[in-house]
Amino acid sequence: MARYTGPVCRLCRREGMKLYLKGTRCDTPKCAVSKTRKNYPPGQHGQRRTRRQSEYGLQLREKQRVRRYYGILETQFHRLYDEAVRRGGVTGENLLQLLESRLDNVVYRMGFADSRAQARQLVRHGHFSVNGRKTDIPSFIVKAGDVVSVKAEKRSKPYFEDFNVQLETKRPPDWVSVNVNDLSGKVLSLPTRDQMELPPFNEALIVEYYSR
Length: 212
What we know:
Helices cover 36% and strands 8% of the residues.
């Protein structure tokens, strides 16, 4: 499957906000959108005077921000939107809940990776199991009560050496719990909108974009 492989800092600069695509680097002065760096859009026209965006432009940018934040392509994103519509209720919140429930995002939220891209790679390489069964599909949707754990045979890998010490320094969101000694975590409940630690996204604009 095709995937963006260019410099991810360009994506943050294009969207004008931190998308936390490089993990802890995004909280340092080296971040491409920090005040001490070039915080204007990339490209030769990046510094030109900002034009007033149309309603369609605002909707498109919001959709792109969320899509790039979670690191998925348009086809997958649209498929999740269709599922959010089918679930009934508030479509925008359903969409964000589905995105947060992806296995790669859950692995990231539990603290097993510094970024979603790293979490996606770990999942694809078969390092994790869900409820005791190997699951190497990053887009797998976890449910409340599911247990995500590092496979026993993978815990001897250099990446996971003394990893419990690293986990103790991280604070997972309220909707998951982490067992640092067992290198596992449990999804206590599906996240509500208030529990989602997200940049200032406006999911209503995404619904308007796809409802045109």
